[in-house]
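User: My advisor asked me to double-check a structure prediction for Cytochrome b561 before group meeting. I don't want to rely on an old file, so could you generate it fresh from this sequence?
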Amino acid sequence: MFRNTKLNYGLIAIACHWLSAVVVIGLFAVGVWMVELTYYSPWYKTAPHWHKSVGILLLGVTLFRLVWRLVNPKPASEPNHQTWEKVSAQIAHGAIYLLLLVIMAAGILISTAEGRGIMVFDWFELPGLTPLIENQADIAGDIHQYAAYSLIALVLLHALGALKHHFIDKDSTLLKMIKFNRG
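Assistant: Sure, here is a fresh prediction for Cytochrome b561 from the sequence you gave:
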């Protein structure tokens, strides 16, 4: 029920997948919105604090997901999947994880560019880093932005691929990420 099998994803993988999907889309939307805030907006300090806090928690979930993938079997592809689909899926999944890590690392570099730590919902503080390069916040900000737009584009392709498998190919690819193995 909790672990993956050779046929289905388990509850842990499914919950982490959908939690990450909702959080990534939410963080992207908030990120696009908050860069337009003015100093006099009541959200000027609150929105970035929440964005950073949720982003740090997502980093923890993402690192957990990567470890979970290593210690759990991956369900087999459907027999009707073409080689190009399998290779594309592997590349897309790898790129999604890479972009997530790049975005989060860049976000940390933006927030700690002046040596301050990142307070996560008043629960704990991620220690600040000594600035690594000149104009660190600006360079990391550009990387954060472009990687986020790239991630959203890839997430859309990922979703379209899942919908193609479900509605056109009529296979169980999408269902594997919706229904967990009850053992």
